[in-house]
Amino acid sequence: MIQVQNVNHTFLIGKKGKEKKVPVLKGLSFEVEKGEIVAIVGKSGSGKSTLLHTIAGFMSPEQGSITVNGQETAFLNETERAKFRLNNFGFIFQNFQLMPGLTAFENVELPLKLKGVSSKKRKTSVKQLLKKVGLEEVADHYPNELSGGQQQRVSIARALITNPPILFADEPTGSLDSETEQDILLLIQDLNQTLGVTFVIITHDEEVASIADRKFRMRDGELVKGDTGYVI
Amino acid sequence: MLFKDQVDFVSQHIKKNKLRVFMTILAATMGCAFLIVLASIGFGIQDTMRKEILEDQAITEVEVYPNDGEELDISKIGAVEHVNAIVQRTRMEAMAVSQIENRSLEGNMLLTNFAQEEKSNLKLSEGRMPTKDNEIVVGYQFAENLLTDAERKEMEQSTEEDAEPIGGYKESLIGKTVSMSLQSYESEEAFSETWDFTIVGVTEKPAKDWIVDTNILLDESWKDKLQEVYEVNMEEGNTDLFFSSTKIYTSSLEHVKSVTEELKEMGYSVYSVSEQLEQLDVFFMAFKIGLIFVGTIAVLISSIGIFNTMTMAVTERTREIGVMKAIGASPKLIQRLFLMESAWIGIIGTILAVIISYAVSFLANWILPMVVGSALGEEEFQDLSMTFSLIPWQLVVIASIISIGVAMISGWRPARKATKIDVIQALRQEL
């Protein structure tokens, strides 16, 4: 489903003219299979978020190739990448990234609007999904009227509404208490099993990583070798 | 994204920043309204002058004069393409004294060819064109100037300038017989010869209020007879009774220019309304372009407001734009949404400006004549059909294109900036 091959990336840091090269991704290679939950675990600054950004197409790696569903994403232009993301990816962010001016319903509806789905079809799909994530009661609430857990459920619903085959979750429980964290993790597992969605979870939290079928550990831009290759 | 959803998205954002958007629209409205009202003055003055010219004479009329010592070759002129009628009116160097019952009038007699007059579209307010030799057409004010001796005396004594005409013939003149004789300008007495004519038509009211038409139109076949009488009664050496003016009428306005040119080529002096209108139009075209240019500066100043508002909008919504891009909004869509927002400001501003401009124009045309009239102390000024401001649809179109175009151009850069927002940076922004 996702093939990452020999990906390298360097950041330039410092004042203009006096920049310093800092390598953040160093020859990464791995694969993610369809329908599995994969966790990329590492401390802050290990390069795991940068890896997610390159796979998601927010940035292009300096070297290497990333293939998703047989499509080499590095060669796509910005418009093509946006379209590719809309059709193939869903995103769950640590701080939810909901639109503050839109209700829970409208937030979930947004990707369907971008796809050009008619208003009638949108309503049916959003209602069904909000019911599935247990938010039908608060559909017309604005993000600031929802709890952290509810906001993250809205975010998950928004990521799932277009039925993407792959869902990226960047520290999905980073802003939640431990009880709510468990709820969200159970939801992710449930969605993976019932809908067959592939999850790529970026986290520093071992408990979150524990729900994954496979884990990749990152340190200083490299995958750490365990007993069974890169997978720990 | 469906167009309806794009519009919803834009209007949602506008509603969120009502006051800021309102102030920007206000600036755009003021700029555009200034442009329209300023240019409307040019259109108004041009319209007034055109009307003045066209009221003076028929638009298909071409006046033609022979050069010194020559005569007009009527048959040659008649052969020119698109010439509809040639009206030669011959004026006499003598007064025509008309008498009906106990009323009389000293006026001018014009000899003409009625067939040509009819072709040239001479309009009558009453009656018909003459068909016989002794039938005539009189001017519109002929009746009201037919006075008895007593009425004339009373009128002479009246000192008021604007006094209403006293007396005059109240009944219809059609079918009435008028007894006419000639009188030299130098003498007090009319010639002894008199003729009886039947009035069959009265001309239309002159376009200008100040023109008093008391002329008598008589068939040109009378020329020789009148000349004879004149010669008998006048001293020798002063027998040049007639002088004529020739007017040519073309079949339509578009042919006035070609006929004018052809007559000029024949060596005649020619004057037509189209020449005057052409010069007027050239002058006013330059004048109006100048006014629109000055007005456009106001629109440009207002565009700074739009640029500011849109830049603020992009800065404020950086995180939202980042999220939109992350979940699959293309840069083109982001750009279009912001351009739509600035276009919306431009469109609403322009619509309001057009409404306000029409109101200002209407008020200016209503109030200004009164203000100017009272300032100059002339009541008559208020009655003049002077147009101070005129807004034709072309001006609305030009102003709309300029205003909406400038709004979109000023929204272009902020919209481009929005498309260049880096998703990663935007997502890192604090909530």
Automatic annotation (TrEMBL), chain A:
One Pfam family recorded for the sequence: ABC_tran
GO annotation, cellular component aspect: membrane protein complex; plasma membrane
Domain of life per record: Bacteria
InterPro entries: AAA+_ATPase, ABC_transporter-like_ATP-bd, ABC_transporter-like_CS, ABC_transpr_LolD-like, MacB-like_ATP-bd, P-loop_NTPase
Molecular function per GO: ATP binding; ATP hydrolysis activity; transmembrane transporter activity
UniProt keywords, alphabetically: ATP-binding, Nucleotide-binding, Transport
Boundaries of every ABC transporter domain copy: 2-231
This protein's record includes keyword Metal-binding: no
CDD domains: ABC_MJ0796_LolCDE_FtsE (cd03255)
Protein family (similarity comment): Belongs to the ABC transporter superfamily.
Protein name: ABC transporter ATP-binding protein
Native species: Psychrobacillus vulpis
UniProtKB/TrEMBL annotation, chain B:
ABC3 transporter permease C-terminal domain segment(s): 292-422
Location of the MacB-like periplasmic core domain: 22-222
Cellular localisation: Cell membrane
Membrane topology: Multi-pass membrane protein
Recorded GO CC terms: plasma membrane
Keyword Membrane: yes
Record's keyword terms, sorted: Cell membrane, Membrane, Transmembrane, Transmembrane helix
Pfam families in the cross-refs: FtsX, MacB_PCD
Main location: membrane
Transmembrane segments: 21-45, 282-307, 343-368, 388-410
GO molecular function, one term: transmembrane transporter activity
Family of the protein in this entry: Belongs to the ABC-4 integral membrane protein family.
Protein name: ABC transporter permease
The species this protein was found in: Psychrobacillus vulpis
